[in-house]
Every structure is written in structure tokens, then in C-alpha cells.
Design a protein that fits this description.
- The chain is an alpha/beta fold.
- It has one domain: 3-Layer(aba) Sandwich (Rossmann fold), CATH 3.40.50.300.
- The chain is built from ten helices and five strands, in the order E-H-E-H-H-H-H-E-H-E-H-H-E-H-H.
- The protein has helices at residues 19-30, 39-47, 51-57, 63-72, 81-96, 108-114, 128-137, 146-168, 184-187, 189-200; strands at residues 8-13, 34-35, 101-104, 120-125, 180-183.
- The protein has a five-stranded parallel beta sheet.
- Helix 2 (39-47) crosses helix 5 (81-96) and helix 7 packs across helix 8.
Length: 203
């Protein structure tokens, strides 16, 4: 494993902005694990919620759900599944960050910095045309029309942004939230990987 100045890396991303691709490449380069979809299993074991419940509520929230969550949380006896899952995710994030790793999504940048854990946070984004082309390559969108993919992309961005806002109080694309923001469409995947590598490697 390489000597890293920042052994814990978080990647927040727009949908189909190559977040998993970049995380996997960095993982292979440095010999450290990355956590994305498999993060669900860790949280399920920690929280008691099913993997399907965490997949549905663990990183995305509609504006209606956010309103109801905020409204009901004024009752002292109420604790929503969103809140319970987020609490479990925070515990998992802190546990994973005890060793070098890469964590994709899950408000990990906020959770770690709020806990005083030193990490390097990255935000990946791209023009819609770039992300649509990438989304069309994903198995989850097989058989969907371009219009259906476009709607799904837009909806996923909104759900992630709403969830991030609910639990961090910040806009997901606020530049000051991150150590580095990269337009992966203009810069390119390989160049983005190289740029992040140069930032996290020890001098």
C-alpha cells in the first residue's frame, strides 16, 4: 500500500459522473478498499434494517419525505427510518475510516469532517450529455429509452441533493464542502484519477 498523506478519501458525485469508476481505480492503485453499494451490507448489519430499506432510504430523499421527516421530528417520541439509517451509516463510516479506505456518497465527507477525522473529499460532476452517455452504459438502465434515462438521472440528482441537505444543512454542490471539485467530462476519467492521486500521495 502506498504512503498516503490522506489515507481516507470520500467521493461525492452526481449520478453517472464516474464516482464508482474513480473509486475502484484509486482502490486498485493504492491497495485500499472502497465502499459504495457494498456499504449497504455494512449498514444493514449495524442498523437492523434490511438491505432493501437502506438501498431505498440510505442516500436519497424526496422533498416531500424531507418535509414530513422535519415535521414529525418535532415530536420527541418520533424517530424516522431515515434518521435511524443515517445514524447507523455514520457509525459505519467512522468505523471504516479507522483504516485507509475510499467511501463513495453517504454524506461521508460531512460525517468525517464533523467528527474531526482528517480526510480528502472530492466532488465529481459533468454536463448532462456526458452523464447521459455514461448512464446508458449501466446495467440498471438497460432497455430504457433516452428520455427515461434523462428523467431518472434528474430525479436521482434531486433525491441525493435533498438527502444531503437534510443531514448536512448544506447544498451538495457547494464548493466549500470539498477539498477538490472536478468536471470529469472536461478533464477525463484518467486525468481526474491522476489529479486526485497527486493530491493524496505523501510528499
Amino acid at each position: 500500500m502506498a504512503d498516503l498523506k490522506f489515507p481516507v478519501i470520500t467521493i461525492t458525485r452526481e449520478y453517472s459522473a464516474y464516482g464508482r469508476t474513480v473509486a475502484r481505480a484509486l482502490s486498485e492503485k493504492y491497495g485500499i478498499p472502497f465502499y459504495d453499494k457494498d456499504f449497504i451490507k455494512e449498514t444493514a448489519a449495524q442498523s437492523g434494517y434490511t438491505e432493501e430499506e437502506i438501498r431505498r432510504e440510505g442516500e436519497e430523499m424526496s422533498k416531500g419525505s424531507r418535509f414530513m421527516n422535519s415535521l414529525l421530528n418535532t415530536a420527541m417520541t418520533y424517530s424516522s427510518s431515515y434518521d435511524n439509517i443515517f445514524t447507523a451509516e455514520c457509525e459505519v463510516i467512522l468505523k471504516l475510516a479507522a483504516k485507509p479506505c475510499i467511501i463513495v456518497g453517504r454524506c461521508a465527507d460531512y460525517v468525517l469532517k464533523n467528527a474531526g477525522v482528517d480526510c480528502f473529499s472530492v466532488y465529481l460532476y459533468a454536463d448532462q450529455s456526458v452523464r447521459l452517455a455514461r448512464a446508458a452504459e449501466l446495467d440498471e438502465n438497460a432497455g430504457k429509452s433516452e428520455d427515461e434515462i434523462k428523467k431518472y438521472l434528474h430525479r436521482t440528482d434531486i433525491l441525493r441533493a435533498t438527502y444531503y441537505k437534510e443531514y448536512t444543512g448544506q447544498e451538495i454542490d457547494r464548493c466549500k464542502n470539498y477539498d477538490m471539485l472536478l468536471d470529469i467530462g472536461k478533464i477525463g476519467v484518467e486525468n481526474c484519477i491522476d489529479i486526485i492521486s497527486k493530491a493524496v500521495e505523501a510528499d
